[in-house]
Fold:
Amino acid sequence: MPSTSTRDRIIAAAAKLFYDEGIRRVSVDAIAGEAGVTKRTLYYHFESKDDLVAAYLEGRDRPNFAWFQRWYAEAEGPLPERIRALFHGLSRAARHEKWKGCGFLRTAAELANLPGHPAIVIGKAHKQRLEDWLCGLFEQDSIREPRALARQMVLLIDGAFAVVLLNRDPSYMETAGDAAATLVEMAPRAIR
Amino acid sequence: MPSTSTRDRIIAAAAKLFYDEGIRRVSVDAIAGEAGVTKRTLYYHFESKDDLVAAYLEGRDRPNFAWFQRWYAEAEGPLPERIRALFHGLSRAARHEKWKGCGFLRTAAELANLPGHPAIVIGKAHKQRLEDWLCGLFEQDSIREPRALARQMVLLIDGAFAVVLLNRDPSYMETAGDAAATLVEMAPRAIR
Structure:
């Protein structure tokens, strides 16, 4: 990969191994090996394994958020149907053989005893950005309590990730989409 | 603890360390140390660390399920309010300083590359039991699609665990309770 910087190659290797096997199972040695660099080179770019975990999630922030935006943009119909499309997108993603849940949530689960870890801070910001985006969509649709509804959507999205990681039945994501569509439809709207 | 069997003492030590620090971070040595037994004694009772992880979750199945049943039994008012009480119970639990999410979901997150692991099988069965119990409550209330609604409740419960583990804001559990109460209230009922 001649056009990829060494730093990006290390992040890509860390992302692959952390997502596939978990944070604590993967050693810095394994990441250096996967990236094809020496440990010395790795430590030139990253001070610690914690920095690598943070860089892994930092690297997932925009692409994951972009998926949600694309699923919404490509959907048709009224708002409840477009929100349902987010869950349909998740269910298709979960059917991929390499799917292993949400990297942000899995990292929070592994590092539950370190709530101030830089990677957790990045995970919180990612989910907050998703919530803010949904809140904006609901505001535009004159929903009276857009923030509360946006929080309910994030709960269903993360619930879908958590449930399907455990039971490996992506149809639960469609069920989450049904719940989300009902809640959006039933939400009181301001009179225009 | 003279009245506790050695096996139970080992499970209690494993449960404490796995829940506090995570599965992969905790060694069999640490568990033996915490339980005050030799490694030889530990291996007399448990063949492997995997067995200990399974025994840890097996031991959480009944107590965790009993909490939900108690929160429901102690609640008053119509069904949506009694369902809301489950989430209020979760939110009180999450305010405890030792709270670190749901052990079943965290284990699924850590062992995402081992979906057939005995501990994951136990976790799936636990959540299925919760879903079946909710489904039974909805059937009694003449809800027309009790299974779908029960699945939506489990999605909100596990979503609450996942979201609050990441952002440490237990008020999201009350928000999940609002969503659950709305969905139960809006669910079509069969005409008696």
